[in-house]
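Question thread 4412

I'm putting together a teaching handout and wanted feedback from people who do this every day. The idea is simple: show students a protein as raw sequence, then show them the C-alpha cells that encode its fold, then repeat with a second protein so they can compare. Below is the first pair exactly as I plan to print it.
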Amino acid sequence: MERVMGVEPVRPAVPAAPAVTAPAAPAVDPVQRALGNQWLGEQRDRDNPSSLPESDWTVGDRLEWEIRREQGLERGLSPTNTFLRAAFANTRNLAFGQYRTVRERHDYYDIISYALQSGKYAPAALRDIRFFEATAAVTGAPGIGSIETGLGHLVLRPETREVMFDINTELFELNMRVIHNLLFEWHEPRAPVAGGGRVDSLEFDAQMVENEQSTVQRFLARDPQRFTAEVRDQINGLLDPSSIKVYLSPSRPSFQWAIKALGVEQLDFRKFDHRRAIGYAEIHILRGLPYAAFERFLKERTAAPTK
C-alpha cells in the first residue's frame, strides 16, 4: 500500500481470532446411549451409522475407550465408537469370540462395569453390583493381563501363562452369559446359577464369586497334569503380598484380608476356600466396607452351604 502526500495509509482491520471453547459434554453419556440402543432392540445407533457390522470394532476405538477411561472422560467418548457399540451387541448375541486377548476382555468388563454403575439405561437395580468392577481390575495389568506384557513374559513361565489364559477364557464365557441375562432378560440381580428370584447386589456378587471359583475348581480337576510344581509356585507367588511377583496383581489388599481371615501364612491357588475369600474381600473393598464386615461375612458364608 502506497503512502499518499505524507499521510499514513489506513490499514484494514485484522479480524479478531474466534474464541475457542471446550466442546460441551454430550447430553447423553455415549456409553449409556450404546447400551440403550441394544436394550431397546435397535441394531445400531441410527444417528451415527458405521460401515462395520455391529459385532466388529477397531483397535483405535478400543484404545480411545482405554484413554478416556483412564482420564475419567468417559462422557467425551465418540458416539460412533465401534468398541463401545460392539460390547453391547456382542453381549446380546453372546459373541465370546470377538474378544481374544485378556486385554480386550478387560476393556469389555470395564465398559460393562461403567455402564451398570453410571447410567440412564442400566436398570437402577443393577447399579450397586461390584463384581464386574472386580473382574475389570483383576484382568488388567497389573493383574491377569500381565501375562501379555513384557514383564509377565520375563517373570512367568509359558506354561503358567497358558494356564492363566485358559482359565480367563472359561470365566469370560461364563460371565458374559450372566451379563447377557442381567441386561436383556432379568433387569435385576438374580441367583446366577439357579436363575431364581431376585437377590440384593452383595448376594449377587458373592454368588458370582462362588460361581467363578467353582468353575476354576472344575478346571483344576480336569487338567491336574498342567499344574506342575513350577506352575503352582508361580501362581501362588502372585497371591503372596510379600513377594515381588505380587506387583503383577492389583489385589494385594484383598490377599492380605484373606490371609488374615483364614488364619493362614500363605494363600494356595488350588484351594477353593482361599480363592473364594479373595473374591469376597475384593467385593467388600470396592464397596468401601471395613475388614470387620468382610470377616463376619466370610464366617457366616463358610458356615452356611454354598448357594
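The second pair follows. I'd like the answer to focus on this one:
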Amino acid sequence: MGGNQYHLPRLPRAAYLKLEQQVRQVLDDLIPGGYRIPLAHLDKTDFGDMDLLVDSAHMTPGLFSAFAQRVGAVEQRSVGHIQSFHVPGPGGAQEPGGMQVDLFATPAELLDVRCSFMDYGDLGNILGRLVRPYGLMWGDRGLELIYRRADDEHYRHHLPVPGGIDTVLDLIGLAPEPLRAGFGNEAEMHRWLITARDFRSWAFLDPDGRIHLRSKNRPGIARFNTFLEAEIQAGRLQAAPRMERQDVSVLLSRLEGGTAEQLGALWNEQVRLEERAARLAERFTGDRLLALRPDLGRMEFEMLVRALKNLPADAEPGGAEWMLARSPEDVHAWLLTLPAPVISAHMRATWEKKIRINAQKAEKKAAAKLREGRYGQP
C-alpha cells in the first residue's frame, strides 16, 4: 500500500513469515499492543510488502530509529503518513532482495477496525459493496451510515455505526465463524461471500459499476469477478440484478436492538440539524445576501459574509439562534441595514494582489491540464 519504494522482488511465504515474526518481536518490545498486521490467506505464496498499522501516538523519530536499528533496515523513507523501511530478508543484508515494511500512522481507536477492513486483501472492498444498498460504507474508518439530502445527491454526511465487522456480517447474513477461523485460500473466502443474504452478482459484474471498474487495478476483485462468472456459467449462482438502495428503516430493522437504537438516534439528530440548516438558509446565505445587497463590492461582500458566519450562535443581533427566532422577512430587512465594511487602501491592494496571483495559478494549472490532454486534445 505504500507503493513499491525499493523495487524489490516478491518474498516467498516462508521467508516472509520469518521476517514477520522478527518484526512482531521488535514491535512487541517497543510498542506492546500498539500495532496490527492484517491477515493474509494461508495459501498466499509470496508477498510484495508488509503493511503494519501503528498507533499514531507512537509514530515518532525515536520509534523509527529504534525500529530501523533492530530490524537492520538498509533504507528508510517517509511518504505522507507512512514510514517505509527496506528490511533485509532472513538471510541478512548480504542476501539480495528483502522486504519493504511500511508503518501506517493510525488513530488508536481505529487500529482494530482498520485492520479488519484490510484483512485478506480485497475482502473489505467486497464487503463494502454488499452493505452499500443499505446506505452504508465499510472502509478504513469503519462502518458508516451515509446521510443524503433528498434534494442534493452530492451532499453526504457520515454517521458512525457501532460494532465494526460484526455488524457488517450480521447485517448481510454472513456467518462469522469462517472469518474468525481464517481462510485457507481465496476460493474458500469467495464461496463464503456468496452465501450472504440477498447476494446480487450484478453488483460486481455490471461493466459500468464502480467496483467492476476498480477490478482493473485490484487483482483481488478481478479474481472474485472471475469466480462469479464461473459459478453463473456452472449454474450454481443466479445472475441477479443489483439491489436497489434501501430505506433507512430497513437497515434499522435488521440491526440488533442496542445498535439500531443508537444509530436511529444519530439519524434523527442529523434530520433535525438538516431541517435547522434549511430554515437558516431561508434567512441567510451568501447568495441571498448578494441578491439583497448589490451595492457591496466583492471584497466588502466577502468580509461581511465572513463576519456574519463567524458570529456565535447566540449573538444578538445576527447569530444563528437570533435569525431562527425571526421571520425570513425580518432578517432580510436587518441585512439591508448593515453598513458596508470599511476597507483601507492597503487591505484592498493586498486583497487584489492575492486575487491576481490565484488567477495566474489557475491559468497555469488549466494550461498544464490541456497539455496533458486531461481536458481533451490541446
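Top answer:
Good format. For the second protein you could add a caption like this: The CA atoms of residues 19 and 90 lie 6 Å apart. The longest strand covers residues 152-160.
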